[in-house]
Amino acid sequence: MKKVLLLFLALIIYTCNKETSLAFEETAIEKNDPVTIQVIYPKLNDDSEIASKINATIELTIAEQIDFFNEDAKSLSLDDAIAQFENQFISFRNDFEDDAAPWEVTINSEVIFQSVYVITVVVDSYTFTGGAHGNSVITLLNFNPASGNLYTHDDLFKKVGDFSGLVEQHLKSEIAEKSIKENYFFGENFKLPENIGFNEEGVIFLYNTYEIASYAQGITEFTVPYNEIANYLKINY
Questions:
Q1: Where are the alpha helices (DSSP H) in the chain?
Q2: 152-237: which CATH topology?
Q3: Distance (Å, rounded) from C-alpha 76 to C-alpha 79?
Q4: Where are the domains of the chain?
Q5: Nearest-CA neighbor of 206 among 187, 218, 193?
Q6: For the chain, percent of residues with pLDDT exceeding 70
Q7: Of 156, 158, 132, 135, nearest to 205 (Cα)?
């Protein structure tokens, strides 16, 4: 009976590991006419519901970054977003032929952390549609491997406000290392970033350009080690 029980438990463990061992493959899209588009992103090539959810969320996030000027981008597929971007450029070029500098999109997305508890995917996008400079945005997506759903901050942390002081201290250290003297929050109180994720060392906190500080400071990113923030986490890592 004992051997049967051990075999049963081993089967459960094997099954759980099999279900959460999601294997991503790199997918690439490249176009050079009439616009330049280079997209690399991770994709799960299986027919499970979990894989479908994760793939759909990653592709939707990329679609939103490509077609950022379209309010309906959240309902577009990746192919449709690319087509819309091309059409917008063609329309702009027809109206302003002399000022129509080539438009471009470069997006690099990859899995930066994966365990049986959480998968963190980064979407690093750059779009240029004319003007003085392009638009750079980094998005961190945290997936529940057991369901394929995105975690919210409330899903990940016991009380978000409780560790704000800890994160603020790390931000101040980051600012001091860069010798930045400007007020990062323009006189307002400290706030946590919109993008939080996981890596091997700890929890990533990332402020995009314009989220805090001036454009010249670019992206501000730092990691709080697990031994400092573990007590505030709802999930293992």
A1: 2-20, 49-66, 78-95, 153-156, 164-177, 226-229
A2: Actin; Chain A, domain 4 (3.90.640)
A3: 8
A4: 23-151, 152-237
A5: 193
A6: 85
A7: 156
